[in-house]
Amino acid sequence: MERGNGTQISEFLLLGLSQALELQPLVFGLFLSMYLVAVLGNLLLVLAVGSDSRLHTPMYFFLSNLSLVDICLTSTTVPKMLVNIQTQSRAITYAGCVTQMYFFILFAALDDFLLTVMAYDRYVAICHPLHYVVIMNPRLCGLLVLVSWIMSFLNSLLESLMVLGLPFCSDLEISHFFCELNQVVQLACSDTFLNNIIMYFSAGLLGGGPLAGILYSYSKIISSIRRIPSAQGKYKAFSTCASHLSVVSLFYGTSLGVYLSSAAPHSSHSSATASVMYTVVTPMLNPFIYSLRNKDIKRALDRFLGREAFQGPAVLI
């Protein structure tokens, strides 16, 4: 890839969250802690679900997939940021930037689709409980996850290929802590109208479509819950989807914050700060949200950690 003046592009510069040198150790420690909590928390959730046969149900199958995607999402951005802080370098190669952007778009879209699939699962469980086992069969569950992967892959591939076709100017500083699509496109020294159209169309289609599905599912769920005669029955029905609703609110709330901050003028720093919420904070909080109010997950975690403590290395065999 070449610059506008014909010289070869070798790297971009990631300006990060703060350029103050005295704050770098604090930022490094904070992000390292959040990253480790996010990875270990989601990994424990996946292992707990996999080790307990009673949790081999559609809801926990989708939850374990969401946890794996959250690990991948935060691992796409944070390790490179930590390395840059540690080495006091802001450079990322052109190939590395495009690769990071590709995987970030892929896993962010997957998060979105999996949350929609989980909303559909809760809709079937509450609105059609007698047909739940028949409808949410293993084949359909696998197909829903597969379609989510294919849609995310195609979208990420399209966005990345569009960026590969852009010539870039001499100013290659990205006001972010990772190669965010919108920030990279703004550095191009050619007309980016088509890129912007595709970018916003994809955001509307892959963001608005799943959100509409989630809202529709919960409108039906609320309608069904209201028809339950007893207060205890209403509470039990609502408690099965409270954790998912919390995660959806957190994901879309932070994503909306990033969108609004990026739309405002001179908002690069605020956009980068808002991005921390859904790239690091949301994956870190998800395991806690799903485990704190879920007795099945708590029992599975206790059983898994207890087996680890008593059996030690034998568990790995």
Describe this entry's structure for a reader.
It is a single chain. With 317 residues, this protein is mainly alpha-helical. It contains 10 helices and 3 strands. It has a 3-stranded mixed sheet. Residues 1-7 and 308-317 have low confidence and may be disordered.
Oligomer: single chain
Estimate the global geometry from the Cα principal axes. Answer: globular
Strand portion, in percent?
under 5%
- Taken in chain order, the helices and strands follow as EHHEHHHEHHHHH
Largest beta-sheet characterization: 3 strands, mixed
What's the tally of helices? 10
Radius of gyration: 21 Å
Could you give the topology of this structure?
Blueprint: E1 11-14, H1 24-51, H2 58-87, E2 91-93, H3 94-127, H4 132-135, H5 138-164, E3 173-174, H6 181-186, H7 193-226, H8 231-263, H9 268-292, H10 295-311
Helix pairs in contact: 1-2, 1-9, 1-10, 2-3, 2-9, 3-5, 3-7, 3-8, 5-7, 7-8, 8-9
Short structural description:
By secondary structure, the chain is mainly α. Helices cover 75% and strands 3% of the residues. Helix 7 runs antiparallel to helix 8 (231-263).
Attribute tags:
mainly alpha; 317 residues; disordered N terminus; three-stranded mixed beta sheet; 10 helices
